[in-house]
Every structure is written in structure tokens, then in C-alpha cells.
Amino acid sequence: MTFTSQKIKNIPPYIFSEINKKKAELTQKGIDVIDLGIGDPDLPTPQPIVDKLVKEMKNQQNFKYSTYSGCAEFREAVSSFYQKQYGVQLDPKTEVLTLIGSKEGIANLVPTVVNPGNYVLVPDPSYGVYRMAAHLADSKSYSMPITEENDYKPDLEQLPDNIKKQAELMFLNYPSNPTAAMADLSFFQQAIAFGKKHKIPIAHDFAYNMISFNNPAPSILQVEGSKDITVEFGSLSKSYNMTGWRIGYIVGNKNIIHSLSVIKSNTDTSQFLPIQKAGAYALEMDQSILDKNVGIYQKRMKTFVQGLHSLGINVKPPGGSFFVWFPVPEDYTSGTFANEVLEKCGVVITPGSAFGPYGEGYARVSLTHSVERLEEAVQRLAKVL
Ligand SMILES: *Cc1c(COP(=O)(O)O)cnc(C)c1O
Known about the structure:
Elements: H1 6-9, H2 15-28, E1 34-35, H3 47-56, H4 72-86, E2 96-99, H5 102-113, E3 119-124, H6 128-136, E4 140-145, H7 161-166, E5 167-173, H8 185-198, E6 202-205, E7 230-235, E8 248-252, H9 254-267, H10 273-284, H11 289-310, E9 323-327, H12 334-345, E10 347-348, E11 350-351, E12 362-366, H13 371-384
């Protein structure tokens, strides 16, 4: 007896588990493994945010339940952040909801708007949670290929008519994990026009909103009329190095946000108040504190991209996120390349196929290590290539 539902049994084995097993074996043998697989910042949470948390932790009033949709302080901070950063107005009461990390909101959004059996349009390659959320909600996911040739944007007009009819949600994500691609407002305009024409709401995952190197990443809500069909997810995890804190938000269309709050108020009671209040502080503080982090990622990105060039792998320097996405050498699949790099160099990279079939032929590295470690990783790669 396994006491496990068919739905859970139908989840394919975790693609990282074999890599993790091999990594553990090598580490046990005393090999110094460089793990460029995980997307968890190595940089610290800025101290003023930590200080604010400690201060709020000393107030017993903060140990009570939060209101279901999150405390007013946090939602107001999100609203003024959008005003300052993007010139977008949001009603903190109806157009902003606190999330326990954006992953939670992404997973709960699917059953909020999609009926069982209907489609969720998912970029391929992409963050695995979109697809898994569709599976867990008894919906179907449909891959929208994003490839180098189309600048990692889905070709929406090419979607088959029956899929357009049965689709009840589309996910987009720029700056993109894993491809590091950026989008401009004209792409978002097209996507919104498409969504309106076919009555498909759009959820834009903006987890890397503050990590861009040349031009600031636009919010999809900057498109006029976007709120009719659009929500946007934000997270403090990557911008402020707060992955373990579990704090994020969803903004935009108030009907969708209201429906999501119905699911959430029946399954959770929002985030711990001191964390929300420290999160509010993070969004309201002088954002130039982030420039230093972005500068660090940019330096690392240049180091790694140059390293790849020296190995004969040419990639355009990405415009944002903290990933580099590159083609694996000929004669390898994503999987065989990742395996060989781990076994022969002790370097963990993520095979592109882990993000969907259209990621085959590519690999992703996270720039969550020092320039010196990245240089060493490149030197080790040179041995295999
Ligand atoms: C890291 C990440 C998230 C999750 O962020 P949390 O707010 O920590 O849950 C969501 N989307 C993408 C694309 C990510 O890379």
C-alpha cells in the first residue's frame, strides 16, 4: 500500500534527482563539485531588511494571524513600488494580494481560472511549476515553443484553433528562466491583443524584474488596457536575495485576484506579519541598493559568456536574469553533456531538456557563484571540450 493518488503517481521522476545523486557521490569521494545548477542567490539579504524583520519580531501584535489577503502595509508598498518603478496605478485593496512566495501563487492560480480538462499555455522551455500546476489542477498544458530563432518569444498566431478555444490561461516569463531572454512592451502588447481576441487571460511571471543589465525590464501592466485580462507575479526572492523568506505578490486584474483569494483563504492564512512588514520595507527603500548586486551578476555573466566563447560556444550576452543559456556542443544531447560535465569536471549544469522538450540541445548555468569559481568552472569545461 502506498497511500498515493494516481495523480501523484503520474508525476514523472524528478529530473534533478539523478544529478543530485551523482553530485553526492562525487562530494563523498572528496571532489570539489561546483554546482551551477540551482537558482538560489549566494548574495546576502540587504542588512536594513533583516534589521526591519528583527524589529517587527519584537512586537507581539505581529504574532497574530495576518488578514487573508495580506497586511495593508505590504499591499500598499507593492502599489507604491509599481507607481514609482513602472508608472502603473494599483488599488492595494483589490489589485494586490500577498503570496507565500510567487510559486505558491502560480500553483494556486491554475485551478482559480482553468477548468479541469482545459488548456494552460506554457512556454517551452520554462519554469517547471507552470506545467506541474496544470497537472495538479487536472488541466492540460500546451507547449508554446520559444526558440533562439524567434528570440525566445512564442508565435501565438501559430497555435492551433482548437487549443485557442480550449485555453483558459497563458503563462509568460521575462526576463526568462531558463533562457535569460528579455521582452519589450511591443511583445506584451501583441500578447494582450491576442489574449483579448481569444479570451485567454495572461499571467506574467516577473520573478527577475529587477535583474537586468542594459534596459530595465518592463512590466506587462504598463500596456494600456492590460488589467482587463492580465495578472503579474512578483517575488522578493531574487531581487533582494530572500528566497527562504517566502514572500511575493500578484497584481493586476481584480476578478482573478479575488478568485485566487477565495482559494487561498481556504487553504492558507497569508505570510507571517514580520516577514510581510520587512518585505514592505524592501519595496519602499532606496532601490539603488540593488545596483551593486546587478553589477555583480553582470560581471559574472560577462566572465562566463567570454569563457564559453573561448571554448567555441557562442552566445549573445543575456540582458537579464542570473542565468546563461547556451547550446551544448554537437554530438551531445543536453543530458549526455550535463552528465559528462559532472563526471569529468565536477561541475553541475542543468540540461535544457529539464525545462521542456524545446530545451533539448541547450544547458543552463546559474551565476550564483563568484567570478573566481566561474572561471574555474570554465577551465574545467575546457578539459572536456
Ligand atoms: C525562482 C522563480 C520563481 C519562484 O519564486 P518564489 O517567489 O521564491 O516562489 C518563480 N518563477 C520563476 C521563473 C523563478 O525562477
